[in-house]
Amino acid sequence: MTRRAEEIAAKIETFIRDVIVPYEGDDRRDRHGPSDTLVADMREKARAAGVLTPHILADGSHLTQRETAIVLQKTGLSPLGPLACNTQAPDEGNMYLLGKVGTAEQKARFLDPLVKGEARSAFFMTEPAEEGGAGSDPSMMQTTCRLDGNHWVINGRKKFITGAEGARVGIVMARSDDGACMFLVDLPDPAIRTVRVIDTIDSSMPGGHALIDIVDLRVPADQMLGASGEGFQYAQIRLSPARLSHCMRWTGLATRAHEIAVDYANRRMAFGKPLIDHEGVGFMLAENLIDLKQAELMIDWCAGILDTGSLGTAESSMAKVAVSDALFRIVDRCVQVMGGNGVSQDTIVEQAFREIRAFRIYDGPTEVHKWSLAKKIRRDWKTATA
Predict the structure, then answer these.
(1) Which residue range or ranges hold the Acyl-CoA oxidase/dehydrogenase middle domain (predicted)?
(2) Domains in the chain: boundaries
(3) CATH homologous superfamily of domain 121-228?
(4) Residue among 245, 243, 225 at smallest CA distance from 63
(5) Where are the alpha helices (DSSP H) in the chain?
(6) CA atoms within 13 A on the CB side of 83
(7) How far apart are CA 198 and CA 205, in angstroms?
(8) Residue 167 in contact with residue 120, Cβ under 8 Å?
């Protein structure tokens, strides 16, 4: 690991523990997530501390994926940490995509406010499953776009769009005659209408997850991201690192939940001795250590693959499956160790359980990634035996 990444990570850890953890009791939150005023307050503190958008350097270059791993893990030590430091989804993934695909003009208009932490963004891809729309299979996309003069006209419905409420930058996926396309849009726009914000198990994302109707949205042609028909290719540029970034952040939160459970198990007495001295509890915490280390190693391995310039689709699928399942085992054990306190909101362990449970579904549920890997195994076998 590089010295610069270690120094950034250490600075972030101090900031999260000393400045952001006290915000966890702030009442500027509802069941859908923190308010934008709370986010703005925390980002001002992060800006003053020099830890805002730490994965993007002053010259616009990015840390390597391996460096990003330890930095994002530290921001994840609090559910509010990624928001404070501007490393949260979907913004972090959208910044990465724009940095790779956007034109100079698009970067100046849409990327710069995101990097500065002055705006939030939303990624409009998923559609209602009950209407046969795109989810884990983006080829089922029903949202359409057609060229009308020097504008594209977009119509469709999107679902589970994270952070759409309050976002200023949108990336909208739609299908043209050429195939999938991506468009950059200014938000809010009267043609993009929130039907409702859906009540979900998690509550760490500002704006929650919305059901959206897009009705005759007109987007200037120069706001198409890349070329018509290449949207799925761009989605992979975004999604492979984004899956790994989720693993990084939630590993930080699972680490914090484990710390809380360890402290509880050492202080809580039962049957004449601390809980940790009972094998049933001590062994669960030992298993946590094993899962945490395996998660860190898997993240580091996959990050190294991405740093070679490979898309790393199979590797990111493996990491998503292994890490999300390991982290869920960790937080589940933390809840169990803490008993009634584990299911209360007196600590962040209960929220960590909810957030990481949701993580096993978004950015592709475990079963879809396993199915994709099985297809690769089949292809590789055919190649090897041809």
Answers:
(1) 123-194
(2) 3-88, 121-228, 232-385
(3) Butyryl-CoA Dehydrogenase, subunit A, domain 2 (2.40.110.10)
(4) 245
(5) 3-15, 36-49, 65-75, 81-85, 91-101, 104-106, 112-115, 231-267, 279-307, 313-338, 349-359, 366-385
(6) 24
(7) 12
(8) yes
